[in-house]
Amino acid sequence: MTHPTDSSDKSLLRLSIPMLLNSALGLVTALLDAIVIGRYAKDAAAAVSIANQILAVVYDFSLLLGVGAVVLVTHALGRGDRQEARETALAALAANTVLGLALGLLLWLCAPALVDALGTPAALQADATRYVTVIAWAMPFNAFLMAGMACLRGFALMRTILLLGLVAFPSYAVLNAVLVLGFGPVPALGVAGSALATLAVRVASALVLGVVLARMLGLSVPLLRQAAASGARRVRRMAALASPSVLDNVSYGFYQLLLVSFIAGLGVTAVVGRFYTLALTAFLAVVVMAISQANEVLVGYEAGAGRVAHLRRRAWRSGAASALLATVLALAMWAAAQPLASLFSSDPEVHREVRALLLLTIFIQPLTGLNTVLFHSLRVTGDVLAPVVFSQFVMWGLAAPLAWLLCVEFAMGVPGLWYAFIVEELFKTAYMAWRWQRAAGPALAAAPPVPVAAVS
């Protein structure tokens, strides 16, 4: 009988399809969320957009130990050490939840200052602050969810993730619509309703996931006591593996905050045009990430087993599939720009903005599709620091100044940001391709991954 975590019967398609479907559910839910809040009020949509940009940075921090857990779990399973994988999962869940609690407290205390620091228009500040403050209470549950989903992914239990999504996403969509717009005796709560719906579903999802993890992975209190003996070492190892890439994501969040400050003074149309375009193109990111996450698990198994030649070819094939599929979908999205933009707003100016940004997105996607897969492949083989340093250099040393120049100095508005993205992705893709071909394989062959038990 084939064990559920054996890599022999896994393929990119079998692992990525459940992830893609789950992410597509998330995308549809996010689109409905944007439509609902946009129908409530244009200013409310702008306030939520600004709040979500702040929250994106904190969400990236909450991924910290989950990212490291995927690496250690897949390596342990690749070596056939299921016990080590289970203990690693427990350590990730406990430590990441504590981290989420700390992040939530910090967010709750700093919400007004963060909203004001972005130069948020006075009419939007109260709603944006209210949204951030409510979501702060959800952060411990969100951190548990992120670690738990990462552990399920490491064990290649993608179908379980999909089943959980089939319950959570529709529940949120219905609850969000009721609380934002009102229904029967329930009054329309607007921005506060959207935040409360998020909080309620995160709490419920964390409770359900805890039960699922205990049953599917055999996690228990006795195992937790056993894992605690070397828990600190595991947490340090996970943090060391994940810190560069997570900090890269966090830095990217601050980078996006900076870009928002460039356009905040251009008016509500510019802010919501960007917001609606990102809501639509989130589907492209979903496709890329589903393929990348499935590839990451497979590369992790290959790395744990020391099959260097296999993992190098696998990443190239996955990257090509990701780039091609994302580009085709971007073309289709641009062709349907008018009806898609009409889902959110009837404003012709918003429609023109969205169409222009979707056209530029076509040129970004092949680059993003390839470099995302290669970056995650490098991470799972332990080659993290150099790719992150290069990514940061391009982002802050080239893309940020270029975005300011095009958006502000040359008065190109939001499209100026998209031109800067194209240049940024071009440099990143060239470097990731070079590093994967020239550096990752030989480095892994020379120094196979070290089991966590051997880390002092």
Secondary structure: elements and pairs:
Layout: H1 12-40, H2 42-62, H3 64-78, H4 82-117, H5 122-136, H6 139-154, H7 158-181, H8 191-216, H9 221-228, H10 231-263, H11 268-305, H12 308-335, H13 337-342, H14 348-380, H15 385-409, H16 414-446
Helix pairs in contact: 1-2, 1-7, 1-11, 2-4, 2-5, 2-10, 2-11, 3-4, 3-6, 3-10, 3-11, 4-5, 4-6, 4-9, 4-10, 5-8, 6-8, 7-8, 10-15, 11-12, 11-14, 12-14, 12-16, 14-16, 15-16
Radius of gyration: 22 Å
**Could you give the count of β-strands?**
0
Structural class: mainly alpha
Helix content range: over 70%
Morphology call: globular
Rounded mean pLDDT is: 82
pLDDT < 50 stretches: 1-9, 445-456
| Tally of structural domains | 2
Order of helices and strands: HHHHHHHHHHHHHHHH
Into which percentage range does the β-strand content fall?
Answer: under 5%
Tally the helices: what do you get?
16
Q: Please summarize the sheet with the most strands.
A: none
The N- to C-terminal Cα distance equals 36 Å
InterPro entries: MATE_fam, MATE_MdtK, MdtK-like
Membrane topology: Multi-pass membrane protein
Keywords: Antiport, Cell membrane, Ion transport, Membrane, Transmembrane, Transmembrane helix, Transport
Transmembrane segments: 20-41, 53-77, 89-114, 134-155, 162-183, 203-225, 246-269, 275-294, 315-336, 356-375, 384-404
